[in-house]
Amino acid sequence: MHEAVSTAPGRHAVVIGGGIGGLATAAGLHRLGWRVTVLERATRPREAGAGISLLTNAQRALDRLGFGAQVRARSVSMAPGGEGLRAPSGRRLQHPADPRFLSRHGLSLIVLLRPDLHGLLRAALPPGALRTGADAVGVEDLPDGAVVRYGSAHGEERVRGDVVIAADGLNSRFRHLLWPSAARPVYSGHSVWRGIAGGGVGAIAEPGGGTWGRGLEFGRMPLPGHRVYWFAVANTPEGARFPDGHAEVRRRFGSWHRPIPELIAATPPGDVLHHEVFELAEPLPGYVSGRVALLGDAAHAMTSDLGQGACQALEDAVVLCAALATEPAVPAALARYERERRPRTQGIAAASRRMGRTKMTERCWDLACRSVMMRLRSPRAAEEGMLYLGDWRPPRLPGPVPA
Fold first, then answer.
1. Degrees to nearest 5, angle at CA 370 with 231 and 187
2. Distance, CA of 170 to CA of 168 (rounded, Å)
3. Helix H or strand E segment including 191
4. The whole model's pTM is what?
5. CATH 3.40.50.300 fits 12-77+113-184+280-362, yes or no
C-alpha cells in the first residue's frame, strides 16, 4: 500500500517520459504528497523487454522509494559477476568476487524482467496520473512554475507544474530544446542482442557470468522460473540490420563454451531483441534550466558496459525527490540535484565508455595487453571498482517508507 505523505500540499510535478526513471520519480513525489502528471508519448504502457539487472546502489534507491521488497520478490539475487569471466573456450580470465568482500559491503545483483519493474512503478501512481499518447513538444518557464505543451488525441494541450522533469530518454527533445548547442548522442560502435532462455536446460541453474572474445561479449544472468536472461554484444556498423537476430547470435556465439549454445537454443527465435548502443560522449554543461530538470538517459545516456543506465536513473529519482522534499524552494532543490548528480553520473558514463573499449577491442596487441592486464590485476582493484558503483547511499525521504 503506497500512501502519500503530506509534505508538499498543492505542489504539482510534470514528468515527461514513462520509463523507469520518470515513473520512479513520479511515484516518489506522489508518496511525498505532490500531485504528479506523467506524459508518455507511447499510446500503450511498455510491456516488451528482456531482463534488467540492478546493483546494490539501485536496490537502495528502490528501498528509499518504497519498492525494494516488491522488486526483490520478483527477482533472483546473484553475486555481481556470477562465476567470473571466461574466454570463448571456457578458459578463466577472472575469478569470481570474494564472497566475504560482497557480504561485508552488502553488495548483490538482482535480476528481473524489465516489464515487471515498469508495472510495479506504474501501479504506484494515482489514477489518471499517467497520460499515454501525450507527446510533449515544448515548455515555457514562468517565475513560479512552468507550462508544458503536448499533443494528444484532442489536439494541443497544456499542463502547468511547479517543476518539470524531463526523463524522455536517449534522444531527449527537451535536452535539445534547453541546450541546442550540446552534442547529440553518438554511436558507441557496438550493438546488443537480448533474449530469455526458457526452462528445461540443465545449465540454466548455473550462477551467471560473462565471456569476452575478440570484439564480442556474452553475458548471462538467472531469472525467476528457471529462466536465464542473456545479452550478446558485437561491434557492428551503425545502422546495420539483421533480419534473423536469433540466427545472427547463433552464428557469432554458437561455438562458445557451455552453457552459451544451450541458452541460445532454448530462446524462442522471435523473442530476440536487437538494439544499437548510443551514448552522450560529451558531457552536458548542466542538468537544470529554470524549473526543468533532466533525468536518466536524457541527462547522461551511457553505454551498457557497466550495466548502470537504469541504476543511475533510479539514483537520480531518489536524489531529486529528497531535494524537492527538503529544500525550501524548487530552484534551490534543482540546484542541489544538479550539484549532487552531475559528477557521479558523468564519471560513471566515462568509466562505462572505457570499459566498452577494453571489452570490445579487436586489435591483436590490445587483446594481448588485456589478457596480461587481467592476469596481473589485483583483486583489490576490481573490488574498488565494484564499491564505486554499488556502495552508494541514497538520501532519506521524509515520512515512513510505504509497506
1. 50
2. 7
3. strand 186-197
4. 0.94
5. no
Q: Please name the residues in contact with 180: beta carbons below 8 A apart, sequence gap of 6 or more.
A: none
Q: Give the number of other Cβ atoms within 10 Å of residue 240's Cβ.
A: 11
* Res 77 pLDDT > 80: yes
Cα separation of 159 and 150, whole Å?
8
- 233-282 pLDDT, tens digit per residue, is 999 999 999 999 999 999 999 999 999 999 999 999 999 999 999 999 99
User: Cβ-count burial of 197 within 10 angstroms (0-12 exposed, 13-18 middle, 19+ buried)?
Assistant: buried
User: What is the distance between the alpha carbons of residues 365 and 64, in angstroms, rounded to a whole number?
Assistant: 46
pLDDT, mean of residues 358-362: 93
- Sheet order of strands, 35-40 included: 130-132, 35-40, 12-16, 163-166, 292-294, 288-289
pLDDT on residue 5: 39
Q: Is the four-CA dihedral 111, 114, 118, 123 of positive or negative sign?
A: negative
Sign of the alpha-carbon dihedral angle for 180, 183, 189, 190: negative
H or E element at residue 159 = strand 155-161
Give, in order, the Cα–Cα distances in Å from 352 to each of 122, 188, 201, 313, 380.
29, 11, 32, 15, 19
By the 8 A CB rule, do 311 and 55 touch?
yes
Q: How far apart are CA 316 and CA 341, in angstroms?
A: 7
Give the CA distances from residue 361 to residues 116, 156, 185, in Å, rounded to whole numbers and listed in that order. Answer: 34, 48, 21
Find the length of the chain.
403
Rounded Cα–Cα distance for residues 397 and 24 (Å): 14
Burial 295-313 (b: 16+ CB within 10 A, else e): bbbbbbbbbbbbbbbbbbb
Minimal CA–CA distance to 397: which of 22, 35, 61? 61
The three three-digit cell numbers of residue 36, written as one number:
504528479
Q: Assign residue 17 a region: left if phi > 0, alpha if psi is -120 to 50, beta otherwise?
A: left
